[in-house]
Every structure is written in C-alpha cells, then in structure tokens.
Design a protein that fits this description.
Layout (H helix, E strand, L loop, with lengths): L1 H7 L6 H12 L2 E8 L7 E2 L1 E5 L5 E6 L8 E9 L1 E6 L15 H12 L5 H17 L2 E8 L5 H6 L3 E8 L7 H18 L2 E6 L7 H14 L1 E6 L3 H9 L3 H8 L12 H8 L11 E9 L5 H10 E8 L1 H8 L5 H6 L4 E3 L12 H11 L5 H8 L1 H6 L17 E8 L4 E10 L2
Parallel strand pairs: 1-5, 6-7, 7-8, 8-9, 10-11, 11-12, 12-13
Antiparallel strand pairs: 1-2, 1-3, 3-4, 5-14, 14-15
Helix pairs in contact: 10-11, 14-15
Length: 425
C-alpha cells in the first residue's frame, strides 16, 4: 500500500499536496437539519451540507435513513445573513428612546442623546453588538457611520462590513465644510482597511447642492444607501411644506426642501435629471433605498426609471418602533422589487436580530412564505454588496456561513416569537 501511495504523489503534485488532499477529507464536516434552505432552490427536508475545514461548501443534498455520519439539528439551516441596514455606532442608545415618537420626535432624541456616554463606552457597545450579530448568524452588513467610532471594532470582527459614510446638511453654505469632513472620515476608513462609500442621509436633510454632490461621489464609489420615504412626515414636508418634521426644521431655523407635489422620490429624480447615465439610459451603481415605509406605486415606478440596479431595504422592527407602521410589502412584491432586510439601530429597535425581523414580517404578513423572507435576508443583500459569489446561498464553492434557526414551527415553516439564530460555521 505504501508503494501505491508513493506512486500517486506525482499525480497529486507531490507529498505535501497529497497530505493536503487527505486532510481535506479528514476535516470535512457534514451538517444536517430538519430543513435546509439553499435559497437558490427549494427547501430540502432533512437536508445536509458537506463543508471543507474553511467553511467552503462541497456538497448539498438530502439525508437517507442513516444520520450517524452527520451533525443533526432540530431546526432550519440557512446561509449567513446580510444585514442591509444598520447604524452600529448607535448601539450605546439601547433602551434609551421612547417608542412611537414619529420622525420629528426621533430626531430630537438623537440630537439630545447621541453623546450622553463617554466615547470609550460607546465603542465598547459597538464591539459587543457586532459580536452578537456575528454569533447569531450575520455574515455581512451595510452599516451607516457618521464618525469613526465603529472602525476599530470592525477591523477586529469576522463580520464583513461596507461602511456608508453618511452626510447631511440642510444649509448650502455649509457644503464645503461638510465635504472636507467627509474627506477626512474617508481617509480614516481607508487607513483602517474598511470598505467605505459616501452616501446621502436622505433627500429632506440636505441642501440640493450637497445632495447632488454626495450622490455623484457615492455612485462613483459604486454604492449608495439612502433613507427613502421612512415617514409620512417626510412626505408631507416635501409635498406641502408642513407637518411635524417641517415644523421642527423651521423652529431650528433650518431650510426645508423646495416643494414637489410628486413627493420625495420625484424630488430626488428631478434633482438627478442631468446626472451621467449608462447605456440603458439609467444611472448605474448599486442603489439601496432604505425603509420605504411610506412608498407607493408612483414612487416605485419613478425609481425604476432612473436607477439601473435598485434594492429596497426594509427594517420592520424599527418602523414599528418609530412610526407604528410597516412598508407596503405586498405592493413591493407585486412590483417585483429586490427586497433586502436590515435591523437599523438600537436607538430605534429593541435588539439587532435578523431572525426577529423575519418573524415580524411573518407576524404581520402571514401569507409570505418563509423561504422568500430568508432570500431577502441572505442572497438579495449579498447581491447588493456584490458578495453573492462568496455567500448568500448554499452552493458548492461558496463560503456563506451556516446558521441554525431554532425554535421554529417546522410543520408549517413558521417562525415563533422565541425563534433565534445560532451560527454553526
């Protein structure tokens, strides 16, 4: 036998290569559960995964009667999640905000409470929540930053993050100063080795000149993540110049946007009319519109007309926390939108849990199948971040992470209030 193996060494590239191949199979891991959600195909009852020692998927399939050679779990196996909208640097605000405040009330709480703790404690909260997100199955994240307080924790975390350096400023005269601050923050992100992109906060929090310039810079980087139609107050402010948000701006001596009876998306579309287009006649780049709580068919059609590649992030627990409202998800599905899922921040949420966000959707939209919601939480977000070749689904050659969703109604494939995610790989 030894002689036979020696003769095989040249075929495998020498003794060291042979040892690597042998160890590859020795270290192979087989994981199975009551259900496997590959995401790119239908759920598999009693499905399994075979993985390399670095988490690369080698094979997927359905178990026979013999489960002795597999780790078997009572739950659902899904790929690692993509949290497509978070403000991790606000983690120190957990439990400090009152709910149902509306947008004007929420902004007031942010202004008053953002720096109530020392910087060291704020950074510790970021590190703690990043660790929890990873343990509960988040593999990648689109995160919003207004400062560098999350940067160090991100460099230590195994969770991949694209950091969106958020800009706002309603006064045109402040634009030069704001752009300089953005440039400095971008340098700090680059120095830390963090993938980052500038992005506007929203249409109503920025002067026209600043909104146009930041949009241009964002799309040059290939990505944009912008709050869109999060509140009825935003819609009222842009359409009619009134409402709680408009009153708040006026009371602080800030400019409000020019009126546009077509609403927030039409306001943005008109502003971008002269921006460079691709061969399709649409603006290119990965565009994430976030929240969409009060979007409508007209706004959706307008967005489709101007952007080539749009993703629509929903954060249901945050929307309930602030507005006691949810996005028109059935309309979004009928319109064929690429929906993604986010948690938003602990200033507007009780916890950062992708499984809890999925449960909230099932609770209020019980006819939406769980495999579809899992798709929103995995591959759609991965596609927005251009990480679909690495993760987002269970396919040979990918390394998506493996998450077990436990405490599930397996008979009806429904999540429960106590359902949770646990990272296995």
């Amino acid at each position: 036998m030894q002689q036979t193996m020696t003769h095989l060494f040249p075929v495998f590239g020498g003794k060291e290569a042979w040892n690597r191949t042998r160890n590859h199979f020795i270290n192979m891991r087989k994981i199975a559960a009551q259900y496997l959600f590959p995401v790119n195909s239908n759920p598999v009852e009693r499905g399994y995964l075979k993985l390399d020692d670095d988490g690369t998927i080698l094979e997927t399939g359905q178990l026979g009667d013999n489960i002795e050679d597999a780790e078997f779990y009572n739950g659902i196996l899904v790929p690692g999640f993509t949290n497509s909208h978070c403000h991790i640097e606000l983690s120190h605000l957990k439990g400090k905000f009152y709910q149902g405040s509306g947008m004007a009330g929420f902004i007031k709480q942010i202004r008053e409470g953002r720096e109530t703790l020392p910087k060291e404690e704020r950074e510790e909260a970021v590190e703690r929540e990043l660790e929890n997100l990873y343990k509960e199955g988040t593999e990648s994240m689109a995160d919003i930053s207004n400062s560098d307080e999350s940067f160090y924790a991100k460099t230590k975390s195994p969770l991949y993050t694209r950091t969106f350096l958020e800009v706002f400023g309603s006064e045109p005269d402040d634009s030069f100063k704001i752009l300089n601050q953005l440039s400095e923050l971008k340098k700090r992100a680059d120095s830390a080795g963090i993938d980052s992109s500038p992005t506007p906060h929203s249409y109503y929090t920025m002067s026209k000149v600043l909104l146009a310039e930041i949009t241009r810079l964002a799309l040059e980087s290939g990505y944009i993540s912008c709050h869109n139609q999060e509140s009825w107050e935003e819609d009222e402010m842009i359409r009619r110049g009134r409402g709680p948000l408009a009153d708040d701006y006026k009371s602080r001596g800030l400019r409000t946007p020019e009126l546009n009876p077509g609403g927030p998306m039409k306001y943005y579309s008109d502003l971008l009319r002269g921006m460079r287009r691709g061969a399709s006649g649409k603006i290119e780049g990965q565009v994430l519109l976030v929240h969409n709580t009060f979007t409508d068919k007209q706004s959706i059609e307008t967005a489709k007309e101007i952007f080539e590649s749009i993703y629509w992030a929903i954060c249901p627990m945050s929307n309930m926390f602030i507005h006691r409202a949810l996005p028109p998800i059935h309309l979004m599905r009928r319109e064929g939108l690429k929906i993604t899922l986010g948690t938003d921040s602990l200033s507007s949420n009780t916890k950062l849990s992708m499984v809890s966000e999925m449960y909230t959707i099932q609770r209020y939209f019980p006819t939406i199948p769980l495999p579809e919601i899992v798709k929103w939480a995995t591959i759609n977000g991965a596609e927005f971040l251009k990480r679909e070749k690495i993760g987002g689904s269970f396919e040979p050659g990918k390394r998506p992470g493996v998450v077990l969703i436990e405490n599930v109604n397996l008979q009806n494939l429904k999540l429960l209030p106590e359902s949770s995610g646990r990272r296995l790989v």
